[in-house]
Amino acid sequence: MREEGPARFEFRVFGASLRRVEERIRGEAEWMRQEESREAYLVGRDEAGWSRNVKIRDGALEVKMLVERREGLERWRPAGRQELPLSGEFVAGPLGPDLGVGPLEARQDAFSLEDLVRRVIGTHSQLAVAWVEKRREHFEIGGCAVEIDEVRINGASLISAAAESEDAERLLGVMRLLEMEGLENVNYPRAIRRVMGMEVSPGQPWF
């Protein structure tokens, strides 16, 4: 079943260290909770896959679609959730377009995560899977959700900070307060592509 929810504006940064941003968040925002997760992101090598966020966590595949860019923000809309195992009909139907590629081949009726990775993603030249571990601290400030994440992408360690809201102006105000203006907005699929060598980061030298 494909379900949709409200779209939200998001701003996210990644780095080996985000000390200044982290200090601002801890000093200005209200701490809410902490959680840990292990997720599998499905990413495309082609530019068409940049506007999709497809991941598997808690026994389900979740899809978000990028619907707008505004003043450095990205607006993402939840576009569906499918419990595992995935049906062959879903894999051969909407999953390929969700990943920015054509229809996928499904030779069985149901797909576990292992089936999906080995028999679909692993055999497609334009698709890859990334294993992501997150330790997330959630905060709230000015009506916006804010978080600080310790992230491991295929074993590579990064720090990420993010803020989100359904209201773009409110989010921009929180970004100014947290001194996040001027930083590059990098969503999870893009960060994963860079870690995996599928995309070159701005300022990266060519040899």
Number of helices: 5
User: Low-confidence runs (pLDDT<50, min 5 residues)?
Assistant: none
- Which H/E pattern describes the elements? EHEEEEEHEHEEEHH
* Fold-level CATH name: Hypothetical Protein Pfu-838710-001
Structural class: alpha+beta
How is the main sheet built? 8 strands, antiparallel, barrel
Strand arrangement within the widest β-sheet reads 1-5-4-3-2-8-9-10
User: In oligomeric terms, what are we looking at?
Assistant: single chain
CATH architecture group name: Beta Barrel
Determine the CATH superfamily. Hypothetical Protein Pfu-838710-001
Gyration radius, rounded: 17 Å
Overall mean pLDDT: 92
Number of strand elements: 10
Q: How many individual domains?
A: 1
Q: What coarse outline follows from CA principal-axis ratios?
A: globular
Report on the structure:
This protein is of the alpha+beta class and 207 residues long. The chain has a single domain, classed as Hypothetical Protein Pfu-838710-001 (Beta Barrel), CATH 2.40.320. 23% of the residues lie in helices and 43% in strands. The chain has 5 helices and 10 strands. It has an 8-stranded antiparallel beta barrel. Strand 4 and strand 5 form a beta hairpin.
Structural key phrases:
43% strand, two-stranded antiparallel sheet, Hypothetical Protein Pfu-838710-001, 10 strands, eight-stranded antiparallel barrel, alpha+beta, 207 residues
Overview in brief:
The chain is α+β, with helices and mostly antiparallel strands and 207 residues long. The protein is 23% helix and 43% strand.
